[in-house]
Amino acid sequence: MSSQQKTVDYIVEQSAGAGTMTAKKMFGEYGLYCDGKIVALICDDQLFIKPTEVGRAYLGEVTDGSPFPGAKPYFLIEGDRWDDADWLAGLVKTTADDLPAPKPKTAKKG
After folding, report:
1. Helix, strand, coil proportions of the chain in percent (round to 5)?
2. Mapping DSSP to helix (H, G, I), strand (E, B) and coil, where does residue 15 land?
3. Strands (DSSP E) along 1-110, which ranges?
4. Which residues contact 30 (CB under 8 A, 6 or more apart)?
5. pTM > 0.85: yes or no
6. Which of 64, 88, 60 is nearest to 75 (CA)?
């Protein structure tokens, strides 16, 4: 089952206070980016935040979940938490700040 566009749009809207938020379709699901860093996955209408130590501290009690079979565990954020835009933006911003900058893409040889 893939995620609904309205779920993706809602999460992007609710986390907009974290920075420039975008969602990109990936393998039928979505990657959630904050200021160019991938911070989360949206799979089967569920939000999975990349695990970081500061994210764990921010959450306090953590529920781990796997966005797809064989994936490393992510922090599963329950749907009722998405309604608090300030809280969600804080989690996304905290996570993005703790992740390394994306590697620059190499130019394709023509």
Report:
1. 35, 25, 40
2. coil
3. 21-26, 29-34, 37-43, 46-49, 64-65, 74-77
4. 3, 8, 23, 24, 41, 42, 43
5. yes
6. 64
CA distance 54 to 90: 11
pLDDT in tens, 11-48: 999 999 999 999 999 888 999 999 999 999 999 999 99
Phi, psi of 39 (to 5 degrees): -115, -15
Tokens of 53: 């130590």
**Closest by CA position to 47, among listed 69, 32, 37:** 32
Q: How far apart are the C-alpha atoms of 24 and 42, rounded to whole Å?
A: 10
